[in-house]
Amino acid sequence: MIKEYKTIGEVVGPLMAVDKVAGVKYEELIEVRLQTGEMRKGQVLEISEDKALVQIFEGTGGINLKDSAVRFLGHPLQLGVSLDMIGRTFDGLGRPKDNGPEILPEKMLDINGEVINPMARDYPDEFIQTGISSIDHLNTLVRGQKLPVFSGSGLPHKELAAQIARQAAVLNTDDDFAVVFAGIGITFEEAEYFMEDFRKTGAIDRSVVFMNLANDPAIERIATPRMALTAAEYLAYEKGMHVLVIMTDMTNYCEALREISAARREVPGRRGYPGYLYTNLATLYERAGRIKGLKGSVTQIPILTMPEDDKTHPIPDLTGYITEGQIILSRDLYKSGIKPPIDVLPSLSRLKDKGTGPGKTREDHAATMNQLFSAYAQGKQAKELAVVLGDSALSEVDKIYAQFAERFETEYVNQGYETNRSITETLDLGWQLLSILPKTELKRIKDDMIEKYLPEKG
């Protein structure tokens, strides 16, 4: 039997204390009936003897302590899932916001998910083509991986996110592919940009979109990525689909965690973030993967803006520990007009070797990737040397490398946000750039591959 309590003790920010409760569970969903008859939802954060601390999703403004009542519903926050979700847009709590009909759920799922047995996990090793050369060739994304994008304030991560959502595909399979997009604390303009892009390109037809805007309650931000991941797990593990989850901006999620932690008067950790930030982020990122015996997979691309472009800030720092690499956007490349401004040298995909090679991409993938990395690094060094000592200080080979670095950025990295390159086109472009170098410099590629793929100098 559901009891109703009129024993609200105090309200602090988005939090509310309820006294003299019994049988209440952690993360249990609650309903608050205001004196006006308005209903708000919340969740239990903490239980101590007969007191419960709850967070209210819609905020606590206007709650009269004496005349409002609280009901504990006996279950955690849930999302009603169905295949009808594809092509639809929801708010951060999973309610339709596209003026379409209510979803008739096939089942109700706990948004906190279920723990995956590590022994049941399958190793990620199938190539996902994003159509972006800097990712597909040099920092390859594979099914079941979590590969974050580290951006900065004002950098074009929204354009990159929309491009990946629009272009991503799993090659050599007839299995269904879907994109789950979660906007976390983003502005109205950003939300409109994504929705317009999804509608214009038809990407919305294979997408499930969750939008939590900057003017929505911060507390809702905690639920938004969990809603998205719950939908993704349903489509992947129960419907056999390959699902790509794009979450932007994880920094806003962490700021909401810090706000709630401060309201709970918890002892702060680094830079005021709660000490459990790492654990909390892990509960999201570790929901990516493949499960043995099941066809589907969940692949994650979380996007975060590094405060002051600082890679050592707690959010990118802890994210880097949990995930399998990172794609880093460069402010210098952005100022130079490179689109997308992906800085390939510090970027990394730890699983790239597993998703490349014959039958997945092409036999020359790994060798050309290593050679391009090496040549670009040498070219950057040569350009920096020329700035300090002048061009006359460079050898003839250094000058060729400097030219290579210039063309690599303008022709290879700078592909724009509308170009969708196949992996074959990317590999061929890589060979064209390598043809600038003397054959004697191609030390990371076998001779038979050079004979087969290297174009003749025109």
Explain this structure to me?
- Pfam families: ATP-synt_ab (PF00006), ATP-synt_ab_N (PF02874), ATP-synt_VA_C (PF22919).
- Residues 131-349 form the ATPase F1/V1/A1 complex alpha/beta subunit nucleotide-binding domain.
- Keywords: ATP synthesis, Hydrogen ion transport, Ion transport, Transport.
- The chain has 458 residues and is of the alpha/beta class.
- It is 33% helix and 23% strand.
- The protein has helices spanning 133-136, 157-167, 188-201, 218-238, 250-263, 277-285, 314-322, 331-335, 365-389, 396-413, 423-434, 447-453, and strands at residues 4-5, 8-12, 15-18, 28-33, 39-48, 51-56, 69-76, 78-81, 89-91, 107-110, 121-122, 127-129, 141-142, 149-151, 169-170, 177-186, 207-213, 242-248, 289-291, 297-305, 325-328, 348-349.
- Strand 2 and strand 3 (15-18) form a beta hairpin.
- Helix 2 (157-167) packs parallel to helix 3 (188-201), helix 9 crosses helix 11 (423-434) and helix 10 (396-413) packs antiparallel against helix 11.
- The mean pLDDT is 92.
